[in-house]
């Protein structure tokens, strides 16, 4: 039997002097942060919802391509960011509820109804929340572009633009300046536009993400941008955009497009 | 007289009185200073003037740094201690440089604590307290330097002080240290007027210098010159240590310039 | 509660074409309570070097006075003005002296350094609270709104901006960033440094 420390003869120094530690409680942490950033901007008759594709944990990259933005219907796109497992599961559950609605009502849920639904689904888990920041983008019943943003327990609000995730603090003030024209006075006799055109919005989205990628380690690898156009909106602005794909399902309503871009991988 | 102070038993200790109650080390220090280049100071009602005779001169001396940059002067006799005090030194140059460094640090430390320019007498007093310490503690020799402090503070306005190796100081209207200081002092006593202005003080200083300096020439090679006045707009003290070219121009305008044949290219 | 966030405040410096700009907010708070909307955090070191000190307010004053001491000693001994790169290293050593009991400040330096040919080159630098230097070519940020400043600056900055354009860029960067930070704001001040002059402007912004 090996000699125990406490039975060392006196006079000899203890080889392992240990300061006594009290009882320790260990617990399973159900959540983890997977990094990444999402962003949505509403136009007059369109909505843009974007997210980077990097999924990380601490200083490690789990994957360079894990989508965070999902098409719910032809008029609604949901971006989820925070804890990826909760995010992915939440999207599945929302899609399930949308399918039930479709069977029961013989039509797709209008966007504001989806927003309200998301609130109730999130609040139902008030005491063990989904650790996700949701941003819902799409076209309202009146044909206007809309963005709804949520906190993890369901508090929500309709806005013109919102950034969420790791680089929220980097992106949101940039958007305040470029979309809401905050701290900018218009030239005398003119006024700032209430809505920006689609090409401008797309450039702002790309610039926001390249900026965030530069200065935040959890942002990078790839960018996925969803564009939702209202019924009858012209696709002229989307002409000539490299690699644009359409994922619309129905024939006579809103249209959904996806644009993918590379981001720095370091 | 009594050479006992040089006796090996007590020679290593400055902290010792002679039987007649004198501190020989201090006197020997003053003796060293009496062979050093003259420094002359005159207090005017709107400024203070300092002039000094350089001892380290010669064609081979590299003074290229002194021509354009910095605060003027060659850095041998006259130094800027703080934005409101100019110092003139006579004696062992190495000791002087050490004291100048101390003075500058003391002035900045005062600024750090009180957020004000150090009053002239306070600076003088601090340096003197330090010098006195070297006559009483530590077994070290005193500094072989006398200093003139020309300064301004809002309380007592323009002032001129003289301190010596003993750590004693006094305030003067006009005074001189270094070689020929006796001659210069008596000249000043005759010519000084209480309400003298800076422009006249400049003339007085230069005339006295020309009479007491060892060298036959009076030019920027041998002379250092500085003036402390008050800026009329900002009301802040303005220290000006003259560059060699400015000294020559000044001497020219006072009609005192004497060429040095040796220094001519 | 973080000591760096106790009083609040932010500073940014940017490089332009033969000019630099440095700007800060004017808030001094006691955590959530705002105390002063007039608290200076940027100080001139020489005619061509400006130093921004965001962080714990007492250290702002202490460091400003300490650098004044050290730069005065340098000027008086060297008989010339200190150059920005040298000053940056002075800042770094001063902070590292307190490695195990640091000043709670992350200094930002902006200036124009003299080239051997007599021209002026724009210079900016920043350090962390223990003196690690960062010599950036574009911009440096510090303070409670630093992440916001990074984001907007990354979006708005481009190289070779003329002084007037640099002023607009740095102003928009600062104002939009501090508007998203509860602990920064309550007024902004901007200095644009060119080889001939320095223009200082106070910005009109949100006071909430």
From TrEMBL, chain A:
Query: Where does the protein end up?
Result: Cytoplasm; Nucleus
Q: Which Pfam families match?
A: Proteasome
Query: What is the official name of this protein in its record?
Result: Proteasome subunit beta
Coiled coil residues, start to end: none
Q: Name one GO biological process term.
A: proteolysis involved in protein catabolic process
Report the protein's function: Component of the proteasome, a multicatalytic proteinase complex which is characterized by its ability to cleave peptides with Arg, Phe, Tyr, Leu, and Glu adjacent to the leaving group at neutral or slightly basic pH. The proteasome has an ATP-dependent proteolytic activity.
Keyword Cytoplasm attributed: yes
Gene (UniProt): PRE7
Q: Which InterPro entries match?
A: Ntn_hydrolases_N, Proteasome_bsu_CS, Proteasome_sua/b, Proteasome_suB-type
- Keywords from the named record: Cytoplasm, Nucleus, Proteasome
Q: Where is this region: Disordered?
A: 1-28
Q: Which GO terms describe its cellular component?
A: cytoplasm; nucleus; proteasome core complex, beta-subunit complex
Entry similarity comment: Belongs to the peptidase T1B family.
Chief location bin: cytoplasm
The species is Pleurotus ostreatus (Oyster mushroom)
The answer to whether UniProt assigns keyword Nucleus to this entry is yes
Highest lineage ranks of the organism?
Eukaryota, Fungi, Dikarya, Basidiomycota, Agaricomycotina
- The Polar residues compositionally biased stretches are 18-28
Q: Return the CDD domains for the record.
A: proteasome_beta_type_1
From TrEMBL, chain B:
Per its UniProt record, what Pfam families does this chain match? Proteasome, Proteasome_A_N
In the record, biological process GO terms are: ubiquitin-dependent protein catabolic process
Residues annotated as domain Proteasome alpha-type subunits: 10-32
A GO cellular component annotated for this chain's UniProt record is:
nucleus
Q: What is its main location?
A: nucleus
Subcellular location(s) of the protein: Nucleus
Q: Keyword annotations for this protein?
A: Nucleus, Proteasome
InterPro entries xrefs: Ntn_hydrolases_N (IPR029055), Proteasome_alpha (IPR050115), Proteasome_alpha-type (IPR023332), Proteasome_asu_N (IPR000426), Proteasome_sua/b (IPR001353)
CDD domains xref list: proteasome_alpha_type_4
Give TM segment ranges: none
Read off the NCBIfam families from this record. Answer: PRK03996.1 (NF003075)
What is the role of the protein in this entry? Answer: The proteasome is a multicatalytic proteinase complex which is characterized by its ability to cleave peptides with Arg, Phe, Tyr, Leu, and Glu adjacent to the leaving group at neutral or slightly basic pH. The proteasome has an ATP-dependent proteolytic activity.
UniProt family annotation: Belongs to the peptidase T1A family.
Supply the name of the protein: Proteasome alpha-type subunits domain-containing protein
UniProtKB/TrEMBL annotation, chain C:
Q: What is its subcellular localisation?
A: Cytoplasm; Nucleus
Function (record text): Component of the proteasome, a multicatalytic proteinase complex which is characterized by its ability to cleave peptides with Arg, Phe, Tyr, Leu, and Glu adjacent to the leaving group at neutral or slightly basic pH. The proteasome has an ATP-dependent proteolytic activity.
- Biological process GO terms, please? proteasome-mediated ubiquitin-dependent protein catabolic process
Coiled-coil regions listed: none
Gene3D superfamilies per the UniProt record, alphabetical: Glutamine Phosphoribosylpyrophosphate, subunit 1, domain 1 (3.60.20.10)
* GO cellular component labels: cytoplasm; nucleus; proteasome core complex, beta-subunit complex
**Keywords of this entry:** Cytoplasm, Nucleus, Proteasome
Q: How does it assemble?
A: Component of the proteasome complex.
| Organism name | Pleurotus ostreatus
Protein family per UniProt = Belongs to the peptidase T1B family.
Q: What is this protein called?
A: Proteasome subunit beta
